[in-house]
Amino acid sequence: MASTAAYYYTGCEDDYQPHFLDSCSLCRRSLNQNSDIFMYRGNTPFCSQECRQEQIEMDEAMEKKWKLSSSSSKRSSAVRQSSDSAKESGMNKAVRTGTVAVI
């Protein structure tokens, strides 16, 4: 049985670059011509559903981490802006000090 790479060989050994369907993107196991290839996000091949699912879970965890860091930076930016505006508004106010007597 010929490997998948044989179908994409250009004839120049120096210029050979493996085809993206030659191996699993996660475990790097060779993908055989007569076996199923599990694709993810268009052009990412995997040798099994398990490898593909592991990649999906890693991507989801990374996206969740990115969203959390993005939302926390937005919150800290909003807090800084509100404290800055409070400082500015406090500078424009007149404050009276003294004793108040209530009879």
Care to describe what's here?
This protein has helices at 4-7, 49-91, and strands at 38-40, 44-46. It is mainly α and 103 residues long. It has a two-stranded antiparallel ribbon with strand order 1-2. Strand 1 and strand 2 (44-46) form a beta hairpin. The longest helix has 43 residues, at 49-91.
Brief account:
Helices cover 46% and strands 6% of the residues. By secondary structure, it is mainly α.
Tell me the number of helical segments per DSSP (H or I, 4 or more residues long).
Answer: 2
Structural class: mainly alpha
- Helix-strand string: HEEH
Low-confidence stretches: 1-7
Largest sheet: 2 strands, antiparallel
Average pLDDT taken over every residue: 76
User: Going across the major beta sheet, what is the strand order?
Assistant: 1-2
Task: Evaluate the radius of gyration.
Answer: 30 Å
Helix content: 40-55%
Number of strands: 2
Shape: rod-shaped
Q: Distance between the terminal alpha carbons, to the nearest Å?
A: 105 Å
Estimate the strand proportion. 5-15%
Domain FLZ-type: 19-63
Protein name: FLZ-type domain-containing protein
Keywords: Metal-binding, Zinc, Zinc-finger
Zinc finger (FLZ-type): 19-63
